[in-house]
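Backbone-to-sequence.
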């Protein structure tokens, strides 16, 4: 209640949802703040204030989204909002607002199928990049194979971030993508420990593969390092598929 009061004093809020973390989350509580403000206004004016509010609540993970964005993602079958913006998690609602809230107006069978088809479509792109890794490995074109590993990771992270956090981190650094999701989930197979020198080396090789393909042509990687990266990205893909199916099952349980 104290957090909610502080938030609604400094910004126009449509809805706030609060859910508990699980053993797979590095937080105790997760708070979703939905505002009528557009994203640029949120970032420029509100973010510093909200950050200050949550400095005293270390067990809380929070994120905020524009109402327009959330409604759009609900239509597109984004499981993050379908599974976290439920009535049982609602802790604040602006009763004076007439802004549309589409969650309860949707055909959930269509939502369910849209979520599946969206994931399947993106996964087919991931599989294409995976085939590219094998193709360039067979040709012993190791720099290009490393680039394909990078692209496989990046697309898989973007898919994962969508249903794990509600939004995608716009960047090409695999290190930054990993740091981003570490705020939401404990380390998964296929990710890299930043405390191990071997893992730090592999992570740097991944990001250098992307940078080199665009800006320079001075990049070297061994076949052994590539095989390791290929194995790790395969493990990561399996983890993301497992977690997506887990979220899909949550939606089934809520609706059916």
């Amino acid at each position: 209640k104290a957090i909610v009061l502080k938030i609604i004093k400094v910004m126009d809020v449509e809805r706030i949802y609060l859910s508990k973390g699980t053993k797979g989350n590095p937080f105790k509580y997760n708070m979703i703040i939905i505002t009528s403000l557009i994203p640029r206004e949120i970032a420029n004016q509100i973010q510093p204030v909200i950050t200050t509010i949550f400095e005293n609540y270390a067990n809380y993970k929070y994120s905020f989204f524009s109402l327009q964005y959330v409604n759009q993602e609900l239509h597109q079958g984004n499981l993050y909002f379908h599974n976290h913006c439920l009535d049982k998690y609602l802790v604040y609602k602006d009763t004076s607002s007439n802004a549309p809230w589409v969650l309860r107006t949707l055909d959930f069978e269509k939502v369910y199928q849209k979520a599946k088809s969206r994931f399947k479509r993106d996964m087919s792109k991931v599989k294409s990049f995976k085939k590219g890794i094998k193709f360039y490995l067979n040709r012993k074109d190791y720099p290009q194979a490393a680039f394909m590993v990078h692209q496989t990771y990046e697309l898989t992270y973007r898919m994962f971030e969508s249903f794990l956090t509600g939004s995608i981190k716009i960047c090409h650094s695999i290190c930054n993508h990993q740091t981003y999701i570490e705020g939401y989930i404990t380390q998964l197979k296929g990710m890299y420990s930043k405390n191990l020198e071997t893992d730090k080396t592999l992570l740097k090789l991944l990001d250098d593969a992307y940078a080199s393909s665009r800006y320079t042509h001075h990049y070297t990687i061994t076949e052994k390092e590539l095989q390791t990266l290929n194995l790790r990205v395969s493990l990561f893909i399996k983890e993301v598929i497992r977690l997506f199916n887990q979220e899909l099952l949550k939606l089934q349980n809520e609706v059916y």
